[in-house]
Design brief:
Blueprint (H helix, E strand, L loop, with lengths): L9 H15 L6 H8 L3 H7 L3 H25 L4 H13 L4 H6 L2 H9 L4 H27 L9 H18 L5 H12 L5
Helix pairs in contact: 1-2, 1-4, 4-5, 4-8, 5-10, 7-8, 8-9
Length: 194
């Protein structure tokens, strides 16, 4: 006997689950909220995604994959890594969807929520942020070599600085308007540009 045909699109369901987790956080997102948003029943949920925690891990991994791809594209679109960094931070200062402005960064939110509550999930979020830091480092090293990034500070410290800046902007975008955020980005980038 053949298995039942899936009557929903996984990508659409995962997009909906991402929105619920991103807006509400892991703990506050109920199974009912997730099932309603994903427009699936419990059986489909458990058969396709597993339990709430397994779904969250899948959402987090998928979100990270898109973040890495987007970040790399922004760097590759410019000869100067400073312009790539500026484009990355424009995602904060010029969100496509204004609701995203108030939600903060999904990875940063996850790390903040999970620290002290679920160290395995906190470690996952932390490691993903370290991987993003490694992407900064790759392009900063290239910029130092090409004279586009200051040599006085190690690229490793600059990559950590940018990660810290991103984490801070995740909160600051809930406080300041676009102009204030862009001024902050310009000031901070002036610290690493020659």
């Amino acid at each position: 006997m053949a298995g039942r045909h899936k009557e929903f699109d996984e990508e659409t369901a995962l997009n909906a689950a991402t929105e619920v987790f991103w807006s509400q956080g892991y703990e506050s997102a109920s199974m009912e909220d997730l099932l309603t948003a994903m427009d699936i029943n419990k059986g489909s949920m458990y058969n396709t995604f597993g339990n709430k925690r397994e779904l969250f891990v899948r959402v987090l991994d998928r979100f990270f994959k898109y973040a890495v791809n987007d970040m790399t594209q922004k760097f590759e679109a410019h000869d100067n890594p400073i312009e790539g960094i500026r484009d990355i931070f424009r995602m904060v200062t010029r969100p496509v969807d204004l609701k995203d402005h108030a939600k903060g960064c999904f990875l940063v939110n996850t790390l903040g929520e999970m620290c002290g509550m679920d160290e395995e999930l906190a470690t996952m979020a932390r490691n993903k942020l370290f991987e993003l830091e490694a992407i900064y480092l790759k392009y900063l090293r290239k910029g130092v070599k090409n004279g586009q990034v200051r040599k006085e500070v190690s690229p490793e410290l600059m990559a950590r600085f940018l990660t810290n800046m991103w984490n801070g902007m995740s909160i600051s975008r809930r406080m300041y308007n676009r102009k204030a955020l862009e001024d902050l980005v310009d000031m901070q980038l002036s610290l690493i540009a020659p």
